[in-house]
Amino acid sequence: MSTQNSEPEVPIRRLDRILAFTALGIAAASVVCFFAIIIGTALGMDQAAFGEGIWPVVAAIPYWGLPVAFLMIITLLTMSFIRKGRASSRS
User: Fold this and answer.
1) What pLDDT digit, counting tens, does each position of 10-59 carry?
2) What are the CA-CA distances from residue 31 to residues 12, 58, 61 (Å)?
3) Is 90 exposed, middle or buried (0-12, 13-18, 19+ CB in 10 A)?
4) For residues 26 and 66, what is the distance between their CA atoms, to the nearest angstrom?
5) Helix, strand or coil for residue 1?
6) By the 8 A CB rule, do 23 and 73 touch?
7) Which of 28, 71, 78, 83 is deepest in the core (most CB within 10 A)?
8) Hey, where are the domains in the chain?
9) Burial environment of residue 9 by CB neighbours within 10 A (0 to 12, 13 to 18, 19 or more)
10) Cβ 30 vs Cβ 55: under 8 Å
């Protein structure tokens, strides 16, 4: 049995989709880089090896990417709550 939703439909804007997919991509890249560091450490790479080549970038992505993705998700939720609140007050 389905019930009718009394709340009005709120359209999804392009900015919402961009924020959602960008946050998802940054979080996924951060997790992949995090596991790459764990695997590199498990394979016996020493501390000096992580300081050269592409490893500083791989280490910076989880360091900066996860907080940025978290802030983007909080922004997306806030915008969604505000938009839904405005839509429900109009009807």
Assistant:
1) 778 899 999 999 999 999 999 999 999 999 999 988 888 888 889 999 99
2) 27, 10, 9
3) exposed
4) 7
5) coil
6) yes
7) 83
8) 14-86
9) exposed
10) no
Q: For the chain, what's the residue count? A: 91
Q: Which two tokens stand for residue 21?
A: 């997919």
Residue type, 71: L
How many beta carbons lie within 10 A of that of residue 65, not counting itself?
20
Q: What single-letter amino acid sits at 54? A: I
Please list, residue by residue across 21-58, b when 16 or more beta carbons sit within 10 angstroms of its beta carbon and e when fewer do: eebeebbebbeebbebbeeeeeeeeeeeeeeeeebeeb
Amino acid, res. 42? A
Q: Which two tokens stand for residue 32?
A: 């992949």
